[in-house]
Design a protein that fits this description.
It is built from three helices and five strands, in the order E-E-H-E-H-H-E-E. The protein has 126 residues and is an alpha+beta fold. The protein has one domain: Tetrahydropterin Synthase, Chain A (2-Layer Sandwich), CATH 3.30.479.10. Strands 3-1-2-4-5 form a five-stranded mixed sheet. Helix 1 packs across helix 3. The longest helix is centred in the middle third of the chain and has 16 residues. It is elongated, with a radius of gyration of 16 Å. The structure holds ligand LPXRUNBV and zinc ion. The ligand Nc1nc2c(c(=O)[nH]1)N=C([C@H](O)[C@H](O)COP(=O)(O)OP(=O)(O)OP(=O)(O)O)CN2 binds next to helix 3 and strand 4.
Length: 126
């Protein structure tokens, strides 16, 4: 069982040394899909999380605090310490959310990051 929450955020960036137009500052409305699962495969048993991987609201709050608030309406080159390709961003988001969720027995199964309406990357568990 996988549980997914989607987000959008707007940000500017440029790719140093890019051979094409992306070397120039430009913006994207990114779409981020975060899919998570239980590390033991068993859904919550008892209490508020009964029958859930994670409450949608809890997942939303974590992604907002750890990712969206740090990237939305930012110049990504100023806030991320790597070349801001969609691949590097998805890898970073995967690691940040894995660190945050692992104590509660939740794993990040997939990060899907759309940079444009027709271009996306995926970072997947194993
Ligand atoms: N593998 C990757 N290739 C490119 C990335 C990336 O992150 N990973 N990024 C860019 C640029 O950021 C660019 O803004 C997006 O590229 P592209 O899809 O080519 O942009 P367009 O939507 O304008 O292209 P269309 O020709 O309209 O499809 C470049 N490459
Ligand atoms: Zn771009």
């Amino acid at each position: 069982m996988k549980t997914t929450k989607s987000f959008t955020f707007d940000a500017a960036h440029f790719l140093p040394d890019h051979k094409g137009k992306c070397a120039n500052m430009h913006g994207h409305t990114y779409r981020l899909e975060v899919s998570v699962a239980r590390n033991n495969g068993i859904l919550g048993n008892g209490g508020s999380d009964e029958g859930m991987v994670i409450d949608f609201a809890d997942l939303k709050a974590i992604v907002k605090a750890e990712v969206i608030d740090k990237m939305d309406h930012k110049v990504l080159n100023d806030v991320l310490p790597f070349r801001t390709t969609a691949e590097n961003m998805a890898d970073h988001i995967f690691k940040v959310l894995t660190d945050k969720l692992q104590a509660s027995g939740v794993i990040v199964d997939r990060i899907k990051l759309w940079e444009t309406p027709d271009s996306y990357v995926e970072a997947c568990y194993e």
